[in-house]
Amino acid sequence: MFWRHRTESNGIERSEQAMNSLEGKIVAITGGFGSLGLGTARVLAERGARIALIGRSDKTGTLPAPLADACIVTGIDLADALAAQRAIDTIVQRTGGLHALVNVAGAFSWETIGDGSVDTWQSMFDVNVKTALNASKAALGPLSAGAGGRIVNVGALAALKAGAGMGAYAASKAALMRLTEALAEELKDKGVTVNAVLPSIIDTAPNRRDMPDADFARWVKPEELGAVIAFLLSPDAQCITGASIPVTGRV
Ligand SMILES: NC(=O)c1ccc[n+]([C@@H]2O[C@H](COP(=O)([O-])OP(=O)(O)OC[C@H]3O[C@@H](n4cnc5c(N)ncnc54)[C@H](OP(=O)(O)O)[C@@H]3O)[C@@H](O)[C@H]2O)c1
């Protein structure tokens, strides 16, 4: 553990470690067994958070050591509001509360509007918006119960400008940005912040398989995104709400 004290202009010393620590915070992560979900969970656990992982399938794989005592809730389709409520209630019951929710669950689809299906728009909104909406609504009670509740949504840079073939995906991630902003306004006076990160390409095994000739060093690693999310969950970020922050590495 690293402790560094600094003296502020008013002469008060404070510990940076204490301000950035997530010690004792209970954090639920949706999409918890995916590439970014697991990478983020590991970073948050190393900073002292108690992690609850929510998964859609029942497969958890082997979890890394920092997640050995994670609370696991599987078999949850977050597009179903009742299932989302069940997942959050289970976490609160098992861990004793909830301080933060990280909405990682989501998916990508590439198809042109000309050749693609209208149904794709519905499925993108289900997986990228409804999942975060249902999980957030289910978590509002426990997150508002104490001071300093946090929600971080994982959007995408495409929310800012769609490319060809990205219509349904980009529109769904743009809707997630608006959800982030609206909920931030609603929760301002309850001490709960709501923010989003907007990755471009994450350095995951599927992306490496799909783009074998790319320069992987330019991509953001899941743990690097996890560190930005850790900051947004920390006391240092208490004055940031309603923000959607591009986290794009060198892409
Ligand atoms: N990878 C990238 O380059 C990239 C770029 C920009 C943004 N993002 C965003 O980052 C997030 C994580 O991406 P990733 O690469 O880690 O993807 P991933 O490995 O596929 O993980 C996504 C997770 O979301 C879960 N999920 C999907 N639909 C769900 C539902 N209805 N209910 C509950 N869980 C559901 C999946 O569970 P199952 O596996 O059980 O279906 C999966 O574990 C996503 O929101 C994605 O849009 C990714």
Automatic annotation (TrEMBL):
GO terms for molecular function: oxidoreductase activity, acting on the CH-OH group of donors, NAD or NADP as acceptor. The keyword Hydrolase does not apply. One of its GO terms (biological process) is fatty acid elongation. Residues 25-200 form the Ketoreductase domain. Keywords: Plasmid. Belongs to the short-chain dehydrogenases/reductases (SDR) family. This is Short-chain dehydrogenase/reductase SDR. It comes from Caballeronia insecticola.
